[in-house]
């Protein structure tokens, strides 16, 4: 297995991880910003007011994007298994 193949597999894995994490992280970021803005306007500094809406929003995002996330993971895994013979033969 060549160093280029290892780097390619690593890069594809990192890109997949980024693609899979993006919907959840962006959802948490947007909801957290909105709650933070609301807290600064009303001057209510309650920890649970920040945590619970983010947790609910991330759960909803996971329900919405979960099927796509699984499909992407399966496609990546199938691609990696398909590449095994070429990686072992050195070609």
3D structure, described in words:
It is a single chain. The protein is mainly alpha-helical and 91 residues long. It has two helices and no strands. It has helices at residues 3-42, 47-89. The longest helix has 43 residues, at 47-89. The mean pLDDT is 91.
Pick out its properties.
about 90 residues, mainly alpha, 2 helices
Q: How large a portion of the residues is in β-strands, by DSSP E?
A: under 5%
Q: Find the structural class using helix and strand composition.
A: mainly alpha
**Distance between the amino and carboxyl termini:** 8 Å
> How large is the radius of gyration?
20 Å
Number of strands: 0
Ranges where pLDDT stays below 50 over 5 or more residues in a row are none
In helices, the fraction of residues equals over 70%
Q: pLDDT average, as an integer?
A: 91
H/E series: HH
Q: DSSP helix count?
A: 2
Largest sheet: none
Principal-axis shape: elongated
Task: Show the helix and strand layout.
Blueprint (H helix, E strand, L loop, with lengths): L2 H40 L4 H43 L2
Helix pairs in contact: 1-2
Quick overview:
By secondary structure, the protein is mostly helical. Helices cover 91% and strands 0% of the residues.
